Automatic annotation (TrEMBL):
Protein name: 3-isopropylmalate dehydrogenase
Domain Isopropylmalate dehydrogenase-like: 5-361
Biochemical pathway: Amino-acid biosynthesis; L-leucine biosynthesis; L-leucine from 3-methyl-2-oxobutanoate: step 3/4
Keywords of the record: Amino-acid biosynthesis, Branched-chain amino acid biosynthesis, Cytoplasm, Leucine biosynthesis, Magnesium, Manganese, Metal-binding, NAD, Oxidoreductase
Gene: leuB
Catalysed reaction, written as an equation: (2R,3S)-3-isopropylmalate + NAD(+) = 4-methyl-2-oxopentanoate + CO2 + NADH
Enzyme class: oxidoreductase
């Protein structure tokens, strides 16, 4: 019996409230479904700063490194706005991403039928939408050197950011996209700007060669990233997996996510390289939303983004596809029945709090298993 080590970092604000609802699901899986999940828990963000004076302690970092998967809530809040830059809450998140080498950020945009009318697009454009944006997370213009602001001495300053991509970085993110596509509708659309950027030229070339060599069975399209943005809001259902760089991915994933309704619904995963021996990837799963200080402690946060992040964990870290499908179906069924937290409340629906929403999803999950 292999123990599956989960390291929980609930963080600040609504992070712990949302994480509690995942904990209930894990307990059920261990008790009733033969799950072998072993959970440990640490502090990150403002709560770690209050306890240790850092955004994450070395001890907790070591536990995150040793875990099969990390579940992360959210960090930050106004009470930590004035703490030194190096230990600000976000530093904990950045440290985790860097040390775990989480270079692939997966952002699904799924439109639950019950919420199609809440989208900013016409319901028929988004109903049944299920796309996955794979964003390169550790390279590109956010990290490239030089990165400077220089005084030119004539009343002018010059700011420089540098977009850098090496072959191996493009290869590994492309491989993730192709592999994921094979478990979905088997189609990848790569987005870059090879018309004006050298990094786009290389991106296109490396990805195309990898496709030919190892993933020729996957349908591959290329789009210029600006045109891709247009297509995302014109006809989003044409896409299955979109793979793109750090900067374009930041914007395109935010655009795509809003096609589907509330921030409280959106999960994400960040994956690292496969371990040489086990093939297991380091991974962290987290909701897209932040710590929501305006509603923290009130018991009204929507736990769905956190629960859906755990579903991604089951799918991508543990290959529990049937369980992941069932958990996502449980979310959809509960929404179909009109059970809603405040952020997704609609006429004729029943408004519930965080715990009731978690209980409803767990009950539905049980009935599906
Ligand atoms: P936010 O995502 O925390 O909240 C934005 C709005 O959406 C708020 O009105 C909030 O109440 C609502 N909201 C978010 N999640 C919700 C949920 N699950 N259920 C119901 N309503 C929800 O973003 P904001 O306000 O810009 O940032 C608040 C704090 O969170 C800041 O300190 C920020 O730095 C931090 N943050 C942390 C992130 C992370 O840990 N990954 C990501 C984004 C922000
Ligand atoms: Mg963003």
């Amino acid at each position: 019996m292999t123990v599956r080590k989960l390291f929980l970092l609930p963080g600040d604000g609504i992070g712990p409230e949302a994480m509690n609802e995942v904990r209930k699901i894990i307990s059920y899986m261990n008790a009733e479904l033969g799950g072998t999940y072993e959970t440990d828990e640490g502090l990150v963000g403002g709560s770690a700063y209050d306890a240790h004076g850092v955004a994450i302690s070395e001890e907790d970092m070591a536990k995150a490194m040793a875990a099969d998967a990390v579940l992360f809530g959210a960090v930050g809040g106004p009470q930590w706005d004035a703490v030194p830059y190096d230990v600000r809450p976000e530093a904990g998140l950045l440290r985790l991403r860097k040390d775990l080498e989480l270079f692939a950020n997966l952002r699904p945009a799924i439109c639950y039928p019950a919420l199609a009318s809440a989208s900013s697009l016409k319901p028929e454009l988004v109903e049944g939408l299920d796309i996955l944006i794979v964003r390169e997370l550790t390279g590109g213009v956010y990290f490239g050197e030089p990165k400077t602001i220089t005084d030119l001495g004539n009343g002018q300053k010059r700011a420089i950011d540098t977009q850098v991509y090496d072959t191996y970085e493009i290869e590994r993110i492309s491989a993730v996209a192709f592999e994921l596509a094979r478990t979905r509708k088997n189609a990848v659309c790569s987005m870059e700007k090879r018309n004006v950027m050298k990094s786009g030229v290389l991106w296109n070339q490396v990805l195309t060669e990898l496709h030919k060599a190892k993933f020729a069975d996957v349908k591959l399209d290329h789009m210029l990233a600006d045109a891709g943005g247009m297509q995302l809001v014109r006809a989003p259902k044409q896409f299955d997996v979109i793979v793109t760089d750090n900067l374009f991915g930041d914007m395109l994933s935010d655009v795509a996510s809003m096609l589907t309704g509330s921030l409280g619904m959106l999960p994400s995963a960040s994956l690292g390289a496969p371990d040489g021996k086990t093939g297991q990837r380091k991974a962290m799963y987290e909701p897209v939303h932040g710590s929501a200080p305006d509603i923290a402690g009130k018991g009204i946060a929507n736990p769905i983004a956190m629960i859906a992040s755990f579903a991604m964990c089951l799918r991508y870290s543990f290959g529990e596809v049937a369980q992941a499908d069932a958990l996502e179906k449980a979310i959809a069924n509960v929404l179909d029945r009109g059970i809603r937290t405040g952020d997704i409340m609609a006429e004729g629906c029943k408004q519930v709090g965080t715990v009731e929403m978690g209980d409803a999803i767990l009950a539905e999950f049980k009935s599906l298993m």
